[in-house]
Specification:
- It is a single chain.
- With 247 residues, this protein is an alpha+beta fold.
- The chain contains 6 helices and 11 strands.
- It has a 9-stranded mixed β-sheet. The protein has a two-stranded antiparallel sheet with strand order 10-11.
- A hairpin with a 2-residue loop joins strand 3 and strand 4.
- The longest helix has 12 residues.
- The protein starts with 7 loop residues before the first helix and ends with a strand.
């Protein structure tokens, strides 16, 4: 790897390539051979039974700052969504308002948890075309959404369980997050030192016996490469054990 192009969010977080390598790890990368290029982790989206309270917790306990909001007050009658930032980490806390909201269904099945690991990509259509050819389920076809701040190209593919990857190209957009969101400021002051700098990794808990299948999904569909694995007695106690592979 000869050079690293930092995203605007990473530069805003005062990260350097060396610091990013220490925080999240970097692997050799050749953009010309990547069938599914990913620019950055756009956001981790959580579903909560009480989004207002959860958003307050992340601000109060972890020093994250509220930067955007969508909800009934902005014309969104389906759900509330709070966008929180700290460094280059962006969390979106979503809670259903309408009883028939898909987020209400998700919460009834799973409780509080992650519903979407959104990825920023340079070419949504190219990524979706490759994912479909490799056998992925496309949940949302590529389409544009926009407002006065520009246009965002989005799509979504399914992964393990009810989790999804929304693919986002915001290169033509200057708004605070996505169309439909308005700027919102935290009432809590930011800590003197940020507690969150970046998202290190996301863990997917999959069905027993299907880990290799889902590792293969990320290898085949998204071009991820295996970095490490822990099996057997690598992570174990007298009463429990954990197997996982890092891609």
């Amino acid at each position: 790897m000869t050079s690293v192009d930092l995203t605007p969010e990473e530069r805003e977080a005062d990260l350097t390539a060396e610091r990013l390598k220490q925080l999240v790890g970097l692997v050799d990368y050749d953009a010309s051979t990547d069938p599914f290029p990913v620019t950055a982790l756009d956001a981790v989206v959580f579903v909560s039974g009480n989004a207002t309270q959860s958003a307050h917790f992340y601000q109060h306990a972890f020093g994250m700052q509220l930067v955007a909001y969508s909800g009934p007050e902005t014309g969104n009658r389906d759900h509330k969504a709070f966008v929180l930032r700290s460094g280059s980490a962006r969390f979106v806390i979503v809670g259903a308002v309408a009883p028939d909201s898909p987020y209400a269904d998700h919460h009834r099945r799973h409780g509080d948890g992650v519903v979407d690991i959104a990825l920023e990509v340079p070419d949504v259509d190219r990524c979706v075309a490759h994912a479909r050819a490799a056998g992925a389920t496309v949940l949302e076809e590529p389409h544009d959404v926009g407002d006065a701040d520009g246009v965002v190209r989005v799509a979504a593919i399914a992964t393990y369980g009810d989790t999804r990857h929304t693919l986002i190209d915001r290169s033509r957009y200057s708004g605070v997050y996505l169309p439909g969101f308005t700027t919102r400021t935290s009432v809590l002051e930011a800590p003197d030192k940020r507690l969150f700098q970046a998202v290190d990794h996301c863990v997917g808990n999959v069905e027993l016996g299907r880990m290799d299948e889902w590792v293969g999904f990320y290898n085949r569909v998204m071009g991820f490469v295996n970095m490490a694995e822990f099996i057997g007695d690598d992570i174990a106690t007298d009463y429990s054990a954990l197997m996982f592979k890092v891609v």
